[in-house]
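Appendix B. Worked example

We walk through a single record from start to finish. Start with the input: the chain for Antirestriction protein ArdC, Sphingobium indicum, length 81.
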Amino acid sequence: MGSAFLCASLGIVPTVRHADYIGAWLAVLREDSRAIFRAARAASLAADWLLEKHRAARQGVGGEGAPDPAIAATSMDGRAA
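Next comes the structure step. The output line below is what the pipeline stores for this chain.
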């Protein structure tokens, strides 16, 4: 899920689909229907953290490079950054 959030934020079109991965999620959801919400929250927090590191790296120590406005505009949960 985290990779999907990051791809969407960075404009990357994913090309890999793993049926086994989806099958594993189906097994988890059969045991705990709320697991997907906890996983989505954790993935969102991780993606936000990585995107912040990405923004900081783009700005560089000497102010090199401008932050990407598309990434800076919102966080993964839709709130304004």
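Two observations about the output. Helices lie at 2-10, 19-31, 35-59, 69-73. The chain has one domain: 2-73.
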